[in-house]
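Lecture 7 notes: from sequence to structure.
We start with the chain below.
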Amino acid sequence: MAKYHVKKDGTPGVCHAQEGNCPLGDSSQHFSNKAEAQEYADKKNEIEVKNKEYFNNLNEKDFDKEQWDEIKEGLESNIDFSLYAKPEFKSNQMEQIRYGLEKRLDVSTYTKPEYNADQMFQIRRGLEEDLDVSLYAKLEYDWEQMKQIREGLEKGLDTSIYAKPEYNGGQMEQIREGLRKGLDVSIYAKPEFTDDQMKEIRLGLQNNIDVRLYLNPNVNWKDMKNLRLELQRKNNL
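Predicted structure tokens for the same chain:
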């Protein structure tokens, strides 16, 4: 079935390149019919006119070199770079917004200076995977927490069990791993356990050990590990 794209002259046409090898854009810039390609071309041409006008009104002195380079990248890519061409965005934040725009994502979810570039990356990745990013696109989560929630959503896990600000990224990871292994994570999904303690409890559950023997937040994780290994050794006799 023929695919259509927008040619260099700004008009729609049939793409004759092998899938994934077209120099005029990725799958997001290819369409199943000419009408869709024309609609995209009209919008693209409209943005190009708007971009040139917007760019000419910017003051380069308001930005550092890296920020200005990101703005020029947006101009060359013919995306609506006005969404990030603002001094309050650092260059690495601009980059994440630009990547999203190039993928035709709804970047409004993370186009906020309050999100750092790492948080923006996690939200952008979720949008690319068509995940419900509203579950973690919140300023109360740092990027590591966002990552663990995103990875849980990708695996179809019940992230509501650990998508809570009281858990740090390391704790979330241990709960996520337990869910992935089909364990009863309610045994250790408690903020009073550190991520290292959670790991030892999780490994004990995976090895069919009676973790009640060290299920205590006052027990150092290294002591938990030693006891776990000793119990595993006895079980293997």
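Points to note: The helical segments are 34-56, 65-77, 91-102, 117-128, 143-154, 169-180, 195-206, 221-235. The first helix runs from residue 34 to 56.
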